[in-house]
Design a protein that fits this description.
- The protein has 535 residues and is an alpha+beta fold.
- It has a domain of 244 residues.
- A hairpin with a 2-residue loop joins strand 14 and strand 15.
- The chain starts with 16 loop residues before the first strand and ends with a strand.
- The mean pLDDT is 94.
């Protein structure tokens, strides 16, 4: 029987998922099962997150891989911990070097935008500090998926096909390994078609056996170094060997009697916190849905232009996190929000294809985890014989010496991927995230306000039609965004553009825990292939 896996003429509705002993919510059901397998073997939420993240490099290679970066917020033993596993630019890469190769801005694909990958180091660091099971056991589900293969899911196929047509425009030999690895039949795999990656499996085994050391100091580092030298790239084994992820303190704003947590820069979670901080100052929305949407859009715009202006590697930032979140500054920014849409300008706070997953266990431990190759498969660079697809995070760097995010050797770029977490009165409510590049902090604002202002459950919060500010007064909306709201927003000066599909509006997961009963409640993104696995 032939059928179209992307055609759904009738409305489809998901219900929230409940469990009490464990929960794993991801954008791909096989990855959720991998994490649940680890929970049932006696692993904790951290073990499950690592297993799920590794599995996602196999079953959603369109969004992340072994060459990804990662960030995590961990609630364990009653305390929050943050991990920044984003990598810096190679020591040999500079503005002059990039311009000397004929570029006026950082290229999107190829060898130049590749920064040091942090994901394997993140898995190892999380396991060493908080894991319960041996590290090598955690990667077994991912290894099995890579060796035996998996049936490609519908949305993953869409992203795979998009990347295939984009990379096909590059004729350089350096892109050939991508096609050999991800398009061996001369096309993207179809929905339901089995895809295997024995190279990926071998690399996962090496990472598992060495606690990721093979990637940074062993045979894999040597292979990466040789490939970059052969093709004129800048990443070296010395860059890999010098890398270590950084444990950081999450930062928060108070919103509607809850604390909303993000990681500090170089990630852009600060944008979500600024927007929510402005909305908190403006007070409850009231009963007018148009005023509610208008305020949320305007606060997000004002926060975003601040973030794009100031956020970079924290050592190179002008304003501090405290400067950007001080109540006086947020009140100043909130005071700009009026009846009509703004063309936003950044302020001066100084006075003087990503994957997201959430896990929880029966002991109350919870993890908010995100890892990404950035755009589609990332740089389009695959290291031959390894299955390692490398991210293109360096694309975010500026070549303007006056810009805060200017490229420099050993500097980490502005990062779009952000995990979120909610607590109340010192107790964990749960992890949340909405992956999707430029959409991510906007998605955070929308799902948090949907739950805490509109009283929606996690699944309903994810189901709501989304909007995305793109520039100036322009806001893109999903195909099913209500027309009466769109018309009302346009009368307030917004320029609304209705998109034909929902792929650019993010893909999120949420888990919340009831403290009285210990029951877990999850929502999973209706715009993708995922599921929430419950125990």
């Amino acid at each position: 029987m032939h059928h179209d896996p992307l055609y759904y003429p009738g409305p489809s509705r998901r219900m929230v998922t409940y469990g009490s002993r464990g929960m794993v919510a991801t954008s791909q059901s096989l990855a959720s099962q991998a994490g649940m397998d680890i929970l049932k073997r006696g692993g904790n939420a951290v073990d499950a997150a690592i297993a799920t993240a590794a599995a996602l490099t196999v079953v959603e290679p369109t969004s992340n891989g072994l060459g990804s970066d990662a960030f995590a917020i961990v609630w364990i033993d009653g305390k929050l911990h943050g991990l920044n596993a984003s990598g810096p630019a190679p020591q040999g890469l500079s503005v002059d070097g990039v311009k000397g190769l004929g570029h006026e801005q950082m290229p999107k694909h190829g060898l130049l935008p590749v920064t040091v990958p942090g994901a394997p180091a993140a898995w190892s660091a999380l396991s060493q500090r908080f894991g319960r099971l041996p590290f090598d056991e955690l990667l077994l589900p991912a290894i099995d998926l890579a060796e035996r293969g998996f049936a490609v899911s519908p949305v993953v196929h869409q992203m795979w096909d998009e990347a295939f047509h984009e990379y096909r425009s590059y004729a350089e030999a350096v892109f050939a390994p991508w096609f050999e690895t991800f398009a061996p039949a001369g096309r993207a795999p179809q929905p339901g078609e089995l895809w295997r990656s024995p190279d990926h499996a071998r690399t996962l085994r090496a990472i598992a056996a060495s606690h990721s050391d093979a990637f940074y100091r062993g045979e894999l580092a040597e292979t990466i170094d040789a490939f970059f030298r052969e093709h004129g790239g800048f990443l070296r084994k010395e860059d890999l060997a010098a890398y270590a992820p950084e444990w950081v303190e999450p930062v928060a704003v108070r919103y509607r009697d809850h604390d909303i947590w993000e990681l500090p820069p170089n990630g852009c979670g600060l944008i979500a916190l600024q927007a929510l901080g402005m909305l908190e100052i403006l007070g409850p929305d009231g009963c007018d849905p148009v005023e509610t949407l208008h305020r949320r859009i305007e606060a997000t715009k004002l926060a975003y232009v601040d973030g794009l202006r100031h956020i970079t590697d924290p050592g190179a930032m002008g304003p501090s996190v405290d400067d950007m979140l001080t109540p006086a500054y947020l009140a100043e920014r909130a005071g700009l929000i009026g009846e009509q849409a703004l063309d936003p300008v950044h302020g001066n706070p100084i006075r003087g294809g990503t994957v997201y997953l959430a896990t929880a266990d029966g002991d109350g431990n919870m993890v908010s985890f995100i890892q990404s190759n950035f755009k589609n498969f990332g740089s389009g660079i695959v290291v031959p014989g390894t299955g390692i697809s490398l991210q293109n995070r360096g694309w975010s760097f500026s070549l303007d010496p006056a810009h805060a995010n200017v490229l420099a050797p050993g500097k980490r770029p502005y990062h779009t991927i952000i995990p979120g977490f909610i607590t109340r009165q010192g107790k964990a409510l749960g992890p949340f995230g909405v992956m999707g590049g430029f959409m991510q902090p906007q998605g955070h604002v929308q799902v948090v306000s949907a739950m805490l202002d509109d009283g929606l459950n996690p699944q309903a919060a994810l189901d709501l039609p989304r909007w995305q500010w793109v520039a100036g007064k322009t806001v893109e909306v999903e195909p099913d965004f209500p027309d009466h709201l769109a018309q009302a927003l346009m009368r307030r000066g917004h320029t609304l553009v209705k998109r034909a599909d929902s792929l650019s509006f993010g893909r999120g997961q949420i888990i919340v825990r009831d403290h009285d009963s210990g029951v877990l409640c999850a929502g999973t993104e209706p715009r993708t292939d995922g599921t929430a696995a419950a125990w």
